Amino acid sequence: MIKLAPSILAADPLNLEREVLRVEQSGCDWLHIDVMDAHFVPNLAYGPDVVRSLKRVTRLPLDVHLMMDHPERLLETFLDAGADGVTIHAEIDHPVSPLLRRIRERGVRAGLALKPATPMDAVVPFLHETDLILCMTVEPGFGGQKLDTRVLDKIQMLHHTGYHGEIQADGGIREDNLASLINRGLTVAVMGTALFHSDDLPALVSRLHALKEISQ
After folding, report:
1. CA atoms within 13 A on the CB side of 94
2. For residues 164, 118, 178 and 46, what is the CA-based torsion angle, rounded to 10 degrees?
3. CA dist., res. 78 & res. 34, Å (int)
4. How does DSSP assign the chain, residue by residue?
5. pLDDT given for residue 215 in this prediction
6. Is 170 annotated in the active site?
7. Which of 19, 135, 158, 172 could form an SS bridge with 147, CB 3.0 to 4.6 Å?
8. Over the stretch 40-81, which tens digit does the pLDDT of each residue have?
């Protein structure tokens, strides 16, 4: 069954606790938290205090995505705040392996992300050091974008390597295109607008969880 990770980037910031409890009670699996430094991507969002606060109000695993030029500067802070998974980017100008190793040493799921234009070759050397690979299906930074279908082949390529970790995608994922991602090997779908703006979230979550069976 596909795991659903609502991205709080699409939640109502004035009612964040209520929004998070709503997706939890509707049966979602993880909570995705985008951390943006206004340098690596052209937006600014969410610090460790948000992670720490969310840890107190939800039982959902906190999936923290560090879209930062220098994740090493705040990695320990996010780990201390209660992240259950931390994903860094393959494109950063810093050795990746030591950061992945440190995340795992803390008993946290280590992820490695790549932008749509970044070739899969960028993450292949690190597959044995990761628990999750995140294929961005839009240019990271803002929600509400259209899914870049070119990334579908990249997800399928990763699946065909026999990778045993989670294969995650983020950006433009909706009910009408999720099955195509699942068919290529996706195991975790980050969804923002499609979930938080749903009029009947429990029913939508139920349908999305069933897509694995429908798509076969």
Report:
1. 14
2. 90
3. 12
4. --EEEEBGGGS-GGGHHHHHHHHHHTT---EEEEEEESSSSS-EE--HHHHHHHHHH--S-EEEEEE-S-GGGTHHHHHHHT-SEEEEETTSSS-HHHHHHHHHHTT-EEEEEE-TTS-GGGTGGGGGG-SEEEEESS-TT-SSPPP-TTHHHHHHHHHHTT--SEEEEESS--TTTHHHHHHTT--EEEESHHHHT-SSHHHHHHHHHTHHHHH-
5. 41
6. yes
7. 172
8. 998 999 999 999 999 999 999 999 999 999 999 999 999 999
Q: Report residue 87 as tokens.
A: 């994903």
* Tens-digit pLDDT profile for residues 5-19: 999 999 999 999 999
Backbone angles phi, psi at 103, to 5 degrees: -60, -45
Q: Is the dihedral of CA 139, 142, 146, 147 positive or negative?
A: positive
Out of 29, 63, 148, 170, the active site residue is 170
Based on its alpha-carbon atoms, the radius of gyration of the chain, rounded to whole angstroms, reads 16
Asked if 37 is an active-site residue, the reply is no
Backbone phi, then psi, for 48, in 5-degree steps? -60, -25
Q: Are 39 and 71 in contact (CB under 8 A)?
A: no
Strand partners, 87: 65, 111
User: Active site residue: 34, 37, 63, 148, which one?
Assistant: 34
